[in-house]
Amino acid sequence: MQLRIPDSISARQTGVLVTFYRVSRMRKNKARYILIAGALGLFVLHLCKESVNHKTRQLNISETEVHNKRKQLTKKSYVYSWPKCQQNTSAALIKGFSGLPQNIQDFLYYQHCRHFPQLLDLPNKCGGADKSGEVFLLLVIKSSPNNYDRREVLRKTWAKERIHNGVWIRRIFISGMAGDGFERERLNKLLELEQREFSDILQWDFSDTFYNLTLKQMLFLEWMERNCPKAHFLFNGDDDVFAHTDNMVLYLQSLEDNDGSKHLFTGHLIQNVGPIREPQSKYFIPVQIQKSELYPPYCGGGGFLLSSYTAMVIYNMSESIPILPIDDVYMGMCLAKAGLGPASHMGVKTAGLYIPFTNADVYNPCYYKDVLLVHRFLPAQMYVMWHRVQDPNLKCGHSNQMPNIATL
Ligand SMILES: *[C@@H]1O[C@H](CO)[C@@H](O)[C@H](O)[C@H]1NC(C)=O
Ligand SMILES: *[C@@H]1O[C@H](CO)[C@@H](O)[C@H](O)[C@H]1NC(C)=O
Ligand SMILES: *[C@@H]1O[C@H](CO)[C@@H](O)[C@H](O)[C@H]1NC(C)=O
Ligand SMILES: *[C@@H]1O[C@H](CO)[C@@H](O)[C@H](O)[C@H]1NC(C)=O
C-alpha cells in the first residue's frame, strides 16, 4: 500500500508565527532585525524546498508503520496532518467494474483509504486519555451534517450529558461532509456553530454516505484509542433511534463481572444472513467486494452496546481486515477474527417494536419504559416519549407491560 507521510506541518507554522512575533518586538535594534529577517528568509526558502520534497516523496509503508508514525505525531499536528487519500485507479480493472452502481465503484476506488483529515475534534471530551475512566457510558451517535433537528432533540433527551445513578454519560456525534459547493460550506458552518455551543461533534473530511459508514466507525475508534481509551462502555447507534439511556446504565451496572475491561457486544443479533446481491438494494454487495455468501453474526447497526475492551479489540482487528462498506457487518467480521461473538439483548428493537393489539396506541409509553432501544422515531415523538417514560406517575397495567430489562 502506498501512503504519504507528512511532516509535522502545524508545528512548523507555529515556529513561523513565533518568529514573526519576536521580530516585531525588536524594531529598535536595526542590525538584529536585518539579521533575523535574513534568517527568516532562509527559513522560508527552506520550507518551500521541504514542501516540494514532500510533494514528490512517496513512501511505501505498511499499515503497522502508519500506526507507529501516527503515535509519534503530536496530538495537535495529528488532527490536520493526513493528506487527501488518492483514488486507486486500478480498481477500474476489476472484472465487471463498469457494470457496478456508481456508489460501489466509488467504494472500490477509495477502499484503501483509512485516514482522513479531521475537521472538528474534541480532545477533552473524556477529560483526556488518562482521566477517561470517569466516563461510564459514551454515546457515539452517527449523524450526517444535514440532521440538525435530530441532534437538537437528542441533546435535550436521551443523549443529554448527565450523571445517572452515580455515573457519567457523555455524548459524541460522528460526522463526515455532505453536499457540494455552497451547500457544503453551509453545512460545515452549521457543524462548526453547533460545536461552538455544544462541543459534541467529531467531523472528518470524507463524504458522509451510507457506504462510508464503516470508515466513520473506524475513524471514531482511532479517535477513542487516543482520547478516551478508558471509558467503560459505549453505545453506538443512529440518530433516529429512541435509546433508553437510563435503562442502559442500569443494565451495564448490573453486569457484575464486567466494568468494561471484558468482552461485551450486545444488541439486535443477526445471524445466518449473507450479502444482498440485488443492485437496487441499499445494502447491495457484489461478489467483487465479498465472495462468501455468509456474513458472520453481527448486531444491527441501529444501536448496540459494547465495552471499551471490545471496542479496542475491533479496532485492532480492523487494521488487517479490508473494509466492507456495511458497518455493522464489518464489526461482526472484526469480532469473528478475534474469536469473539456478538450477543442478543431482548431490549434492543432495531426492527421496531411488536405491539400485540391492532387498536393500541403505538406510542403508549408503557411499551417503551423497559426497553433499551427502539428504531425509529421522529424528533417530536422522541421529545414526548422521553418525558413520558420518565414520568414517575406513569401507570402501566400488566397486560401491556414489557418484561423487566434485568430479567432479559
Ligand atoms: C512500492 O511497493 C510496490 C509493491 O509492494 C513496488 O512494486 C514498488 O516498486 C514500491 N515502490 C517504491 C518507491 O519502493
Ligand atoms: C487497487 O485496486 C486493485 C484492484 O482491486 C488492487 O489489486 C490493489 O491492491 C489496490 N491498491 C491499493 C493500494 O489498495
Ligand atoms: C467515501 O469518502 C471518500 C472521501 O470523501 C469519497 O471519495 C468516496 O467516494 C466515498 N465513498 C463512497 C462509497 O461514498
Ligand atoms: C490493541 O493493540 C495494541 C497495540 O498493538 C495493544 O497494546 C492492545 O493491548 C490491544 N488491545 C486489545 C484490547 O486487544
**What about the largest sheet?**
9 strands, mixed
β-sheet strand percentage: 15-25%
Q: How many E-type strands?
A: 14
Question: Shape from CA axes?
Answer: globular
Instruction: Give the N-terminus to C-terminus distance in angstroms.
Output: 46 Å
Report the uncertain regions: 1-26, 48-61, 73-79, 399-408
Q: Specify the structural class.
A: alpha/beta
Q: Cα-atom Rg, whole angstroms?
A: 24 Å
Helices and strands in order, then pairings?
Layout: E1 2-3, H1 9-24, H2 30-56, E2 59-60, H3 63-72, H4 75-81, H5 102-110, E3 118-120, E4 135-142, H6 148-156, E5 162-164, E6 167-177, H7 181-198, E7 201-207, H8 213-227, E8 233-238, E9 241-243, H9 245-253, E10 265-270, E11 298-307, H10 308-318, H11 327-337, E12 343-344, E13 348-349, E14 373-375, H12 379-389
Parallel strand pairs: 4-6, 4-8, 6-7, 10-12, 13-14
Antiparallel strand pairs: 1-2, 3-7, 5-6, 8-11, 9-14, 10-11
Helix pairs in contact: 6-12, 8-10, 8-11, 10-11
The structure holds 2-acetamido-2-deoxy-beta-D-glucopyranose (4 copies).
